[in-house]
Specification:
With 487 residues, this protein is mostly helical. The protein has 2 domains: 3-185 and 340-480, no CATH class; 193-321, no CATH class. The chain has helices at residues 15-36, 50-70, 74-78, 80-97, 117-133, 147-163, 167-171, 176-182, 187-206, 218-239, 242-262, 270-292, 296-321, 324-333, 345-356, 368-371, 383-415, 420-444, 462-480; strands at 3-4, 7-8, 108-110, 113-115. β3 and β4 form a beta hairpin. α1 (15-36) packs antiparallel against α17. The longest helix is centred in the last third of the chain and has 33 residues, at 383-415. Mean pLDDT is 87; it is low at 1-7.
């Protein structure tokens, strides 16, 4: 074991984090046994059962974690780019080596076991991002500084989503946006993502609902009103003149009021009227930005014009680009369609299982929904419903609090780093774990669409467990060497 300037490495490993890791792994293993348990099964170490198989993966992860702690911390920095190149080649080769599993081409069979390279790609991308953004002279000053980081996360994400047809694993790479924001990326970039999602949901959910007055749809009018508010906000924010906000807002209200009056005799096309108002504000925005040399407003104007086109293209994307199973999941989530026996079956059964657990749960191994296998994938993506049924509200909250302590511990580790490389990597790890937790639990509760990503350390599977172990123990090794690292 490599000695450091400050003594044995074991003295500097963050043991509280390892303690939380072990607690999550053990409790997850118990719940995998509970989810896959049958009445004629007597042992949790039965290797014909998933709990027994998971135990071997756990032993492997403990061995892997120990090895990662023994490796010189400089190795992770030195080999980051090389590992990234090898990872891209492996991701490209995976669709040609993998078998089709439920439409996904992301699993490679190695004898009796199967591995999913996408689970390990997250760790390598995190190291690569840390390597690039951790350079001494690198700073996020303009949007040009984001081109390479976006390419580093975008290339593997596109390969996984398009070639491997694994949307859930690809979406996880969005967690790196939190890292970019922490390193100085403008918050407007995050708002662009929020706006894209909001416009998509509004146009899809309400696009087919006609207006009670005049002609047009509720969805398009709502999107145009939102863009109107954005234009007025930024125009007034840049010039800091309240009277301008009052004049612009009043003008918009007057125009809509006149349209309502005219609509008494003639049907008014509110879609076109609202779009015309937004375009007029954009033109006004462009004129005053050129006059006052407020060039940021030109970016706002361009973004608004893009959003107008994007809003009208959402229906085409939804109908022609998304796969049928993706469309119906979104429709069920947004309440556009009831499909309790189809796309909504998993979520409905998960809700029933969690609700039946009530406050204290039905007791370990006593979950009827679990035993009768009403919930598909109940020991993988939907493992949290087993927690809710057998351990109840109390157990579910305890698990979430344990995850909260884990995430906060990762942030604490990140903030105490001397090395920029380790700091960026630590926030990448925290972002990935937070993304997995939020999406998985939100999916099980029916708050988010079903996209199929594992719950860290809980869901059955060696690839996910080892992938999360890689992420965590590399961070612990880098953290243990922080006293050796220069600022």
């Amino acid at each position: 074991m490599r000695a450091s300037r400050n003594g044995n490495i074991l003295q500097h490993v963050d043991w509280p984090t390892i303690g939380i890791f072990l607690a999550l792994v053990v409790f997850g293993w118990l719940n995998i046994y509970g989810a896959s348990y049958t009445f004629d099964q007597t042992s949790i170490f039965d290797f014909s059962n998933r709990a027994g198989k998971q135990f071997t993966w756990i032993l492997g992860s403990l061995f892997l974690g120990s090895v990662l702690l023994l490796i010189d911390y400089k190795t992770y920095d030195i080999l980051a780019y090389f590992a990234y190149g090898v990872m891209l080649l492996l991701l490209l080769a995976t669709p040609f080596l993998a078998h089709d599993i439920k439409g996904s081409m992301s699993w490679i069979s190695l004898g009796p076991v199967s591995l999913q390279p996408a689970e390990f790609a997250k760790c390598i991308v995190a190291l690569t991002i840390a390597k690039y953004m951790g350079q001494y002279d690198y700073k996020l000053r303009t949007w040009r500084d984001l081109i390479v980081p976006f390419a580093i996360i975008g290339v593997p994400a596109l390969i996984i989503m398009i070639l491997q047809r694994e949307t859930g694993s690809a979406l996880v790479f969005a967690a790196f946006l939190l890292v970019f924001y922490r390193q100085g990326m403008s918050g407007y970039v995050l708002w662009v993502g929020v706006a894209a999602v909001a416009l998509f949901i509004i146009s899809i959910r309400f696009g087919a609902i006609p207006l009670p007055l005049g002609s047009g749809s509720v969805g398009i009018l709502s999107c145009m009103l939102l863009l109107t508010a954005v234009e007025i906000y930024f125009i007034c924010k840049e010039h800091r003149m309240r009277w301008q906000a009052l004049i612009l807002t009043g003008s918009v209200v007057v125009i809509y009021g006149l349209c309502l009056i005219v609509n008494i005799w003639v049907r008014v096309p509110f879609d076109w009227i609202s779009m015309g108002i937004v375009i007029a504000l954009v033109l006004y925005n462009i004129v005053i930005s050129l006059y006052w040399r407020k060039y940021f407003l030109l970016i706002v104007a361009a973004f608004t014009l893009f959003c107008i086109g994007y809003t009208h293209a959402c229906d085409f994307v939804f109908q022609k680009v998304l796969q049928p199973h993706q469309r119906i999941r979104i429709e069920v989530l947004l309440g556009m369609k009831e499909d309790p026996a189809g796309a909504g079956y998993n979520v409905n059964q998960a809700r029933i299982a969690i609700g039946s657990g009530r406050f204290f749960g039905k007791g370990y191994l006593n979950g009827t929904q679990t035993k009768l296998q009403f919930v598909p994938e109940q020991d993988t993506d939907f493992i949290f419903c087993t927690v809710g049924e057998e351990w109840g509200f109390v157990g579910s909250v305890a698990v979430l609090l344990l995850y909260l302590a884990f995430i906060l511990r990762l942030i604490t580790i990140a903030e105490r780093q001397r090395s920029k490389f380790t700091l960026i990597y630590a926030y990448s790890v925290a972002g990935i774990f937070l993304f997995h937790l939020t999406i998985n639990v939100g999916m099980v509760l029916g708050l988010l669409p079903v996209i199929g990503i594992p719950l860290p350390f809980f869901s059955y599977g060696g690839s996910s467990l080892w992938g999360f172990t890689l992420l965590l123990f590399i961070l612990l090794r880098l953290d243990a060497a922080r006293m050796e690292q220069l600022n």
